[in-house]
């Protein structure tokens, strides 16, 4: 019997202890390759996109086009004074959490599925979410839930009647998405303990990313998370808490 991927050496190819023992220069090189993969770590201006830049200091550059100075974290969510090695260690710790990682837990330790939120499980909600987020040429697999009856006219649909069988034809089954739903519930109950409605899409997007990358090792997941984070600008929805950015919120509970 072959060894399960999650138990193999490929799934643990970047121990957190290795990241902690890294030098700051080594961690900085990880950031360079993740921030500018097209130029293999050579700086390009985050303001105008020009790749002709020259180095001012050890970790700051200046654009030859717009003449503006920048660093590797300029206009990114990591624009802070936290050491690169510490950020990389936090990402590696988060990558190791199969069901997610609580923010308070990360704070103490550190010192491409698409998911959408729907308000209900009726036919109207299912039709709206498929119409707005699924391409017409996609083949959908579903069970016999009545909410999926209206999807027949939107795209190709294959359904499995679980009262008769778990599979239909050659391996057609909706059990993969059902296992994802189960992991969402486990993350809610055992990791986060609550999902804020304000950030519900962020929670689900994070769990979807973990589902997509479940067959990557620690190193692959860390590189993937670092690259996505560096490519994302500062979020106005996630910053400014102490400056009063605290709109009213609700708490969502899974069924």
From TrEMBL:
Family annotation (InterPro entries): Tnp_ISXO2-like (IPR024445), Transposase_Zn_ribbon (IPR024442)
Protein name, UniProt field: ISXO2-like transposase domain-containing protein
Annotated ranges, domain ISXO2-like transposase: 92-212
Source organism of the structure: Microvirga makkahensis
Highest taxon above the source species: Bacteria
């Amino acid at each position: 019997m072959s060894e399960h991927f999650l138990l193999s050496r490929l799934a643990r190819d970047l121990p957190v202890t290795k990241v902690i023992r890294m030098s700051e220069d080594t961690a900085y090189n990880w950031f360079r390759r993740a921030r500018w993969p097209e130029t293999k770590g050579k700086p390009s201006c985050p303001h105008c996109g020009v790749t002709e830049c020259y180095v001012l200091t050890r970790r700051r550059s200046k654009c030859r086009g717009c003449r503006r100075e920048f660093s590797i974290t300029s206009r990114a969510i990591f624009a802070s004074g936290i050491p690169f090695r510490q950020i990389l260690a936090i990402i590696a710790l988060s990558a190791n959490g199969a069901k997610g990682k609580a923010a308070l837990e990360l704070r103490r330790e550190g010192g491409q599925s698409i998911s959408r939120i729907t308000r209900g499980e009726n036919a109207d909600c299912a039709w709206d979410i498929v119409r707005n987020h699924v391409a017409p040429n996609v083949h959908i697999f579903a069970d016999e839930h009545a909410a999926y009856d209206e999807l027949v006219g939107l795209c190709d649909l294959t359904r499995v009647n679980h009262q008769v069988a778990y599979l239909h034809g050659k391996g057609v089954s909706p059990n993969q998405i059902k296992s994802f739903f189960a992991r969402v519930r486990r993350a809610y109950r055992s990791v986060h303990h609550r999902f804020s409605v304000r950030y519900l899409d962020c929670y689900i997007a994070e769990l979807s990313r973990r589902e997509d990358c479940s067959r990557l090792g620690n190193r692959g997941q860390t590189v993937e998370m670092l690259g996505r984070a560096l490519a994302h600008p500062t979020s106005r929805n996630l910053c400014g808490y102490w400056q009063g950015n605290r709109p009213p919120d609700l708490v969502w509970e899974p069924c």
